[in-house]
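Record 1 of the preview.
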Amino acid sequence: MAVIKVHGHLLSTATQRVFACLYEKEVEFQFVPVNTEAGEHKSENYLSFNPFGQVPAFEEGDFKLFESRAINLYIAHEYTDKGNQLLLSGSNKSMAVLELWKEVEAHQFDPASSKLVWELFYKPLFGKTTDTAVVEENETKLAKVLDVYETRLAQSKYLACDYFTLADLHHLPTIQCLLGSPAKKLFDSRPHVSAWVADITARPAWSKVLAMQKK
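->
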């Protein structure tokens, strides 16, 4: 079987999303660091993996993918017999519920949370000044999303069903960044959201992703 390679950056939330999926599925992989600081992600060689010049990129023999959520969907289906089940089997209705919450993460949660991660996590890391107006605007947006989550999580242990799926996993990188910022209050102030965050960030697979950053 071909060796799986993940081309990316340890600080990239999208790269971390793929790592988390691979660890959950207990699938071995090789990490290929991409020096984004030196512009390697815009090189001709890297653009053959991801024509948009972003990380990560996924390689399994001759098969190549980019976009972290698409990569994870492939991994979850291709290695369905390994590790933890991250999909919802059964009826078309069950599948639709999973897809719904994956869409919510991508189109409702991620836009606001990623802007907050940039302002509150990456900018201080790179010595840049945080834009408080952007923070306030996106904290308001994220709060509204988390109000919906609070209602949902009062009814279900996880977003799509009563077990952990891709819908939950895809949130992990941005949540982790925000837990070390003032935006943590948005999670803490909602008891069901807070319990869900504590649960998913304590998963052994996610601990392995965090350990990679400390090496």
